[in-house]
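User: Show me sequence and structure for the first protein, then do the same for the second.

Assistant: Starting with the first protein.
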Amino acid sequence: MASSMAMDILHFTQQYSLYSNSFTFIIGTIGNLLNILVFTTLKLFRNNQCVLYVVTESIANIFQLTTFALIFILTAIYQTDPATSSLFWCKFRGMMVTLCTLISFSTIVFSASHQYLSTSPLFYLRQLSTIKLTKFLICTSVIISLLHNIPFGIFTEIRSSVCDVFNQNMLNYLSYFYYPVLSGLLPVLIASVFSFLAYNNVRRIVRRQVPIVRRKLDQQLTAMILIRIIVFIVLTVPYDIQRMYTFIAKVNQSNLLYFAVNNLIGAVLITLFNLNYAAPFYVFVITSARFRRQVKHVLVKKCWGRCKRWFLHSINKVHPIVDTESPACSVALE
């Protein structure tokens, strides 16, 4: 009876994971592509350090969502997990997930710290926030993440048709440092502190002689990053707790019903966790009226306008499209 129930739970978990991850992949890919489009199109955001972090995060998020989608789609196609028979896929998927997680989380931390530096009342702190430092930190993050992946490639293996890490030292590292600290508490704490400090700086920025365009941009980005950090905390902490418990309690298939229930809980939490990679664009749209106007401006005035011009040109109609947008509106948006 317990075995039959466990198999039903495992089957439901598999179906739930397939559909939830497919949905997350679709909305996340669209959202991240729109993030990249908006932040790289508007002149207002060009050469802004915080925006460069957000664009880098969006690129890492697309790779992460694609990896997650492949994991569940391939399992659905072959009716079994290819990682249990292909050592390459077993190692590659784990390394990709870890790589994209570290890059994405590090850019979240960097964007929060940048907002603190760029809005600081202290001139020497504002001087530290440069595009050169931003590019250096992003490159360093990628290199360190790649080096960090080497042990995952070495110690991930297949035993008894299970793709996992079996080395005890590596398991201890995952249980007591990677999940609770490196991909959990550490980025959450650092991002939270810098976001709070940046928010306080922005509240006092009116007292400084700052151009109104720069002031509005700082206020917009700080508010967007602050809400992003809050969502990041809410979605990350429960999953990290569950992963730590799974490793520390050594949950395995010896008790099938317990294993199935833990898998179901983990599937729900990982769905929420994966929203970290899908939600940024939608968080920005919901929380910032100015960003909504900027998205509309890019999609309607720029993208749709270019499509119309291309279409008219392709059918050899010489009817110039007059841009009715006022210069003042363009300046406000860009």
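Switching to the second protein now.
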Amino acid sequence: METFEFCADDLSGCLLEAARRFSELYGYPRPEPAIYRRPRRPEASCIIVLHRNTHFVRELMIPSLVNAAVDRAIEIIVVCNAGGSFMRDEVECVVSESRSVARAYNLGIARSRAPLVALFHDDCLLDDPAWLDKVSAAQRAGADAVSPEIRYLEKIGSTPIKPLPILKNVPLVAAREVFESIGGYDERQLVGYEDLDFTLRLLESGRRTARLGIGYRHFGGMSSCLKYLDYPNLDLLFATLAAPAHTILETFSSFCKKSDSRAATLLAAMNARQLGEVLARHSRSIDAGTTALDILLGDLSCTAAAHAGISAFELSSTPLSELDRRVVALGRSERV
């Protein structure tokens, strides 16, 4: 790879050039610039929930959406979660102060205008000019909601359960009517399991889901690293594609496993609470009796609370947004 000189006066150009070099090295889709113009009558609304990954979204992600929809009328809406702002071409910005990912997606859907809605995390790229045609084909085949990435929850703690599907927003695509029919996302969820809850409510309402075979790249863990690790200039590093995708996920996974970190153990406890609340509302989707499930979830929360050094009562009664703020603050203090 050739070297190039960093120019602070042309940050966008510098990031794009670096991203091109690293995409060639790692075999990622080659980033190309693009200018977005908001259509009067969009056929699809692309909604991105943003948490501090601004440079990646502005310089790489949005151009990938535009270049994958040439001659198609897509609108792009960025929802800035927990405040902030976003400016690029004619992209619409919506501000959400709640810190809730579920709330942010609902705000984006409410602001959108197209009959088809595509929901995106802020850490993925599209690399398929036929993705909208493939969505239409899946809908004609009977699918109500599609995603190129479907994961499965297979255990509660160490106890195996019937695998529960999770459609990831990379993107998750469905007709507006589908979102409206089940009431959008459950805003009681803060971050982490809103996608599991949404997928289960889709299935329990009789909707059909399917994997969408499109070209895409998901850099899982970017937003979590930015939120909970907060290393200096990490957002600029992500925008250059210099960090391999597996390294990003491994970095955050390593943080979550740190038993000597108060931030990591509290985050694990918060996630255990959220998972318990979701599964308790969807007990009929799990091959376990209600009593057995209650005991299992109770043990999970108590164990997680004990590891975090708080009582089970404090874990269950403290607002999730407050627990999340504590995790972020603890993480910052541990890095000082």
